[in-house]
Amino acid sequence: EIACHPLGFRSAMGEILPDRDLFSSLSASCPFPIDQETRGFQGEHSIEFVVIWLQALRDLFFPGRSFTILPILCGGFQSSIETGTPPSSSSAETAFARGLARISQESDTAVRWTLTESGATQCQCQRSTNNENSTNRTSALVSAD
Predict the structure, then answer these.
(1) What predicted TM-score, i.e. pTM, was given to this entire model?
(2) Which of 32, 47, 103, 143 counts the highest number of beta carbons within 10 A?
(3) pLDDT tens digit string along 42-62?
């Protein structure tokens, strides 16, 4: 139950492009296909708040820079939440988390995570890229339901 939004995000402050490189890396690192779909994201509103906040911070403190996002919906956590235990070591969620961790460790770019909690089952992380020079800051936008 893991899906990535294949499109970027458009707000009143402009368009943010999708991080297709991160999607490709995640797809290659997971032992199962990661869906590219928009249906599950139609009712997801927490992304818009994070994107607008990041755009405002960018414009205030990092003018001229840009960032990309990869919204990810992770389902299948309900039983873990109900029992208060992490997903099993053989679950798709664990395989995905390991793949994401491996990418962040092996990446030749610095990884920075910005975490915000919105409800018991949501976590957003941002991936930003400085297009002005060769220094990149990376992470991913993740929303777990």
Answers:
(1) 0.64
(2) 143
(3) 776 677 788 888 899 999 999
